[in-house]
Design goal:
alpha/beta; 5-stranded parallel β-sheet
Amino acid sequence: MAATLVDSNVLFDFLTEDDEWCDWSSSMIKQAADGGTLVINPVIYAEVSVRYERMDDLDEVLPAGFFIRVSLPWEAAFLAGKCFETYRRRGGARRSPLPDFFIGAHAAVVGMTLLTRDPRRYRTYFPKLKILSP
């Protein structure tokens, strides 16, 4: 069964009922769920958590039975660091690895599809990654 890592931007669209993106994101979440397992990792969980006061509230909108929680593999952390190193060499200004590097590396190392609305950075640093995007 296929696994799809769901990026936080897609979750935000769905959870906030974003006027522009809610329909697309909701449809893609359903399509991915129908075809396999929906996955989130601690980085995605952390990004989404900023909208919630309590962990219980977040767990209610991202139920563990629907969004499977998977830890970030060490290999993905290493790859995220290497992508960050490349980003810095190309003139990137950030001083610490961006969440997208951890998310993309996780999907790449484990062989998951990534569901995102913002594929640009992922395509740049993870050219072989299977991406579902508009």
